[in-house]
Amino acid sequence: MKRPVLLAAAFSLVAMSASAVALEDPIKTRQTLMDANGAAAGLGGGIMKGEIPFNPVAAASVLQTMRAVAVSFGDYFPEGSEMGDTKADPKIWTDSANWQAALAKFQQDTEAALATLPKEVGSYTLDQFKGAFGQVAQNCRNCHQNFRISN
């Protein structure tokens, strides 16, 4: 039971460390944010598959971490940051309307997911989490397919 809570705390620390490098290196910042998002998605996926026991606090932190990334991630794609050690697809800069729409959808989906959280997080259920997280995870897959360079 402690493992998911510790993982949730680790996600928060990773997300906060992004602000330390944000001004110096937007590529590193967005990579750090995606690392936090990926860790949260991994925990969420493990919960969905039954590989990790459901814990309402950990489940809530998955959604909260992904929401924090959703609202800050788009700020770290300035002109010129398409060059360098990045997997960001050039379409982010050349097809910015579709990129902005995908980012807005990520923000909307994470906001909707957070809206499923009850005032007492301890009463959050696995079924509620599955419904909320499933849509957010699908959004992540779509964005990676359209705006991330595969190896």
Proportion of strand residues? under 5%
Can you tell me the CATH topology? Four Helix Bundle (Hemerythrin (Met), subunit A)
Quaternary organisation: single chain
Q: Which architecture name does CATH use?
A: Up-down Bundle
- CATH superfamily descriptor: Cytochrome c/b562
Organism: Propylenella binzhouense
Keywords: Electron transport, Heme, Iron, Metal-binding, Signal, Transport
Protein name: Cytochrome c
GO molecular function, one term: heme binding
What's the quick description here?
Keywords: Electron transport, Heme, Iron, Metal-binding, Signal, Transport. Helices cover 70% and strands 0% of the residues.
Q: Could you describe the 3D structure shown?
A:
Heme c binds at residues 140, 143-144. InterPro entries: Cyt_c/b562, Cyt_c_II, Cyt_c_prime. This is Cytochrome c. The protein has 151 residues and is mainly α. It has one domain (2-76, 85-147): Cytochrome c/b562 (Four Helix Bundle (Hemerythrin (Met), subunit A), Up-down Bundle), CATH 1.20.120. The protein contains 6 helices and no strands. The chain is elongated, with a radius of gyration of 15 Å. The model is unreliable at 18-22 (pLDDT under 50).
Using brief descriptors, characterize the structure shown.
about 150 residues; mainly alpha; Four Helix Bundle (Hemerythrin (Met), subunit A); about 0% strand; elongated; electron transport; metal-binding; heme binding; Cyt_c_II
